[in-house]
Design a protein that fits this description.
This protein is an alpha+beta fold and about 500 residues long. The chain contains 14 helices and 19 strands.
Length: about 500
């Protein structure tokens, strides 16, 4: 009966060798003997090979490019490190990774061709680029290491020597990839010289894009913004401001791509504000389903890297800080935020996020005790109190904006204006806010907005409306509304008011 035990020793396993997923088969001779000895073994073998074939049919591929050493335009300092760090992270997550450092135009095109040839229908494909990029006539271009210096009027020459972003996306899409991801840390200042008031292309940043179905694009800065290569010349971090916020999010178990983008945007904004710079990453989404870099609960991490790293305690601190921050957002008082900053002082990224939140907290029911309400006139700024949330369905969004880490939709009809939540941040969702929840309702009057805003003070108290108004930025890319927001105690009573500001930034 010895031969009857052999089918139990048949095993198929997946292993990662240099980032590639492979199938290993053990005891092949015994398996073949078992195959002929019993029909049951044939069924087992067929199922195992069918499962292996199905699993292998959808592979995750990544092409990662980083360019510091530009021959004719201003070099960078962090792009090479960014590419190497992202490549290592993706490799641990099971991607088949191709990495190119400081490629010229020919090498970039060869890499794209080789990358494309590996893709099969149903695969998940990621293209990451760290380096210089420019926008010319509404089209975005990535600059190879040998891009020649050019001046205003040389646009046709530059676009012929650069790599169009839409071409990269089309190459991936033509291969039938199920998911097409582009992450571009290429929104730095235009590297070409400016003559008088003229520049070749936009002076900074990239233009917004409209991706096709199945694509998700993440830019390191918003339209017209410059992405920081570093916080200062003495910045010790090996990665750019954007990529240092991206890296820990890639490995966070179960984090979907939309949550990743929102978290990265918040972290980048907080870091950039430390040096009085405005950088807020933009993303453009046409995914039909969902995507996560690390859908499993475990990551294949080399334990020696963790044990030998001098920054192990900092990594642990930051992991704990990110977990605790979800709770901090629900409490949202100065005392709690200050305690968080003290507790996690060794995690600069989360401290920066907390300091940004602190700036936006001018007062709270626990930290500020305003004069008691003495007459009905005192509560005039509050129009209505304790009403249910107003949720709009099936509306047409005119444009998308950021408000305090939430993605907002602007509904415009004539002079009428409404802001609704499209992707609320985690903290505000815990107060009952959902997609479609109305935040502002009013009108545009020349270069200002006038209307009513909502404050979601406490989940059991409902919504409080108050009057707001404020100017539109000269370039129509920002709106700042001011009003007297009510302070609400735990019994849902209005105890006073505080100056409050709502800031919206076009994505």
């Amino acid at each position: 009966m010895q031969h009857l035990e052999q089918p139990r020793r048949i095993a198929v396993t997946r292993c990662h060798v240099q980032g590639k997923s492979r199938i290993g088969i053990f005891s092949v001779p015994q398996m073949l003997r078992a195959f002929f000895a019993t029909p049951t073994a044939f069924v087992v073998v067929f199922i195992l090979f069918a499962a292996a074939s199905t699993t292998n049919a959808q592979t995750r591929h990544a092409l990662v490019i980083g360019i510091d050493d530009y021959a004719h335009v201003s070099p960078l300092q962090k792009a090479r490190n960014d590419a190497e760090a992202v490549s290592a992270a993706l490799d641990r997550l099971g991607f088949v990774v191709m990495t190119e450092i400081d490629p010229d135009r020919r090498r970039m095109n060869e890499a794209l061709s080789s990358f494309s040839s590996q893709l099969e229908p149903g695969d998940e494909a990621l293209f990451y680029f760290a380096g210089h990029g420019v926008e010319v006539a509404g089209r975005n271009y990535l600059l190879p290491a040998d891009i020649p210096v050019a001046r205003p009027g040389d646009e046709d020459f530059v676009t012929a020597e650069a790599i169009p972003v839409d071409r990269v996306l089309n190459i991936i899409q033509r291969r039938g990839a199920r998911v097409s991801l582009l992450i571009l840390d290429a929104c730095r200042d235009n590297p070409f010289p400016i003559e008088g008031a003229r520049s070749l292309g936009r002076s900074r940043g990239l233009a917004r894009v409209d991706p096709p179905e199945g694509a998700f694009i993440l830019f390191s800065a918003g339209t017209g913004q410059a992405a920081l290569d570093r916080l200062s010349d003495s910045d010790p971090d090996p990665n750019s401001v954007f990529t240092r916020a991206l890296l820990p999010r890639l490995q966070e178990p179960g984090l979907d791509i939309h949550s990743l983008a929102r978290d990265v945007r918040r972290d980048v904004r907080a870091l950039a504000r430390q040096v009085n710079h405005d950088q807020f990453p933009a993303y453009y989404d046409q995914l039909a389903g969902n995507f996560s870099f690390n859908p499993q609960a475990t990551v294949d991490v080399d334990p020696t890297l963790t044990l030998q790293s001098p920054q192990t305690s900092t990594v642990v601190d930051c992991e704990a800080a990110r977990r605790d921050w979800a709770l901090i957002e629900t409490i949202n008082t100065l005392k709690v935020v200050d305690a968080f900053i003290t507790q996690y002082e060794h995690c600069p990224l989360m401290v920066a996020v907390a300091k940004l939140q602190r700036e936006e907290l001018s007062a709270s029911a626990d930290d500020a005790r305003p004069p008691p309400v003495s007459s009905p006139s005192t509560i005039a700024p509050t129009i209505t109190a304790g009403i249910p949330h107003e949720v709009l369905r099936d509306v047409r969004i005119s444009s998308y904006w950021d408000h305090n880490g939430s993605r907002m939709g602007l509904i415009a009809s004539g002079n009428s204006r409404q802001f609704v939540y499209v992707e609320p941040r985690t903290g505000i969702m815990r107060r009952g806010v959902e997609p479609g929840t109305l935040l502002f309702d009013g009108r545009r009057d020349r270069q200002q907005y006038i209307g009513t805003a909502r404050i979601f003070a406490r989940p059991h108290c409902g919504v409080y409306k108050y009057n707001v108004s404020g100017p539109i930025a000269p370039d129509d890319r920002g709106i700042t509304l001011h009003g007297q927001a009510p302070l609400v105690d735990e019994h849902c009573r209005v105890t006073g008011y505080r100056d409050y500001k709502l800031v919206f930034t076009l994505q």
